[in-house]
Amino acid sequence: MPHDAPTGLADDVLAWFARSARDLPWRRPGAGPWGVLVSEVMLQQTPVARVLPAYEGWMRRWPSPAELAADPPGEAVRMWGRLGYPRRALRLHACAAALVERHDGQVPDDVPALLALPGVGGYTAHAVAAFAFGRRVPVVDTNVRRVIARAVTGHADAGPASTTRDLRAAEALLPGDAATAARMSAALMELGALVCTARQPRCAACPIMDRCAWYRAGRPAGTARRRTQPYAGTDRQVRGILLAAVRDAEDGVTTTELEGLWHKGVQRNRALHSLEDDGLLVRKGDQFHLP
Description:
Blueprint: H1 9-20, H2 32-42, H3 48-61, H4 65-69, H5 73-80, H6 87-103, H7 111-115, H8 122-133, H9 142-153, H10 163-171, H11 178-194, H12 213-216, H13 235-248, E1 253-254, H14 255-259, H15 265-277, E2 282-284, E3 287-289
Antiparallel strand pairs: 1-3, 2-3
């Protein structure tokens, strides 16, 4: 069962957000729905600091879905650069093409239509509906789950994710007015990102410290174990090295050239095959190209 929100929580969080929100380009009025959609895809598993230059470059080149859809998907991969998880670039390209084909190049304003787009999942659909169109829909990421777990339920960690339960808990915190609710969703996310952080929460700077169930309980320790995933020597690293070589080349890159980039042949070939399977590389004879 969802817990009741602490009285006055929304007012305090919104007042803090008005003072403390970061000035991010996708939050500005001129960003438009396409800018919000691009930002939400780029921000998945990627810090804001890394996203900012990539986002600005992307939006300068493709300020609308139609302009992106008119270019080959390989150009999206090239422009993605070293942002990580490059399949997101292909998904954005496919999404742009669908927007042109189904919606006259415009981003739709309701969750079901957004969910029908390639590469748009539940979180992204809710985020675009709220942040681009001011809809009263709950937006739940790890930051929001953590804020709710601490402030409302008194737990240090959010526990296992449950889409239905998490959305219901977030919606319970939203004011009735749609525009204010959308701002509240952004404020909760910002609070989790800047103050109610996972490892070193800044409780003294929190606008709802006195209302927080976790703080009032003495900040009991959590049970979640946070593991740092290794990167060096993994298939993901090898994929990144190989894809970067092709992305940075004006023409294709030969198999022989790629062999010199990673000494473990079995792992290198496995990475190449996975890049082909994901549609990120295309083999033409003895060369690899972007799609």
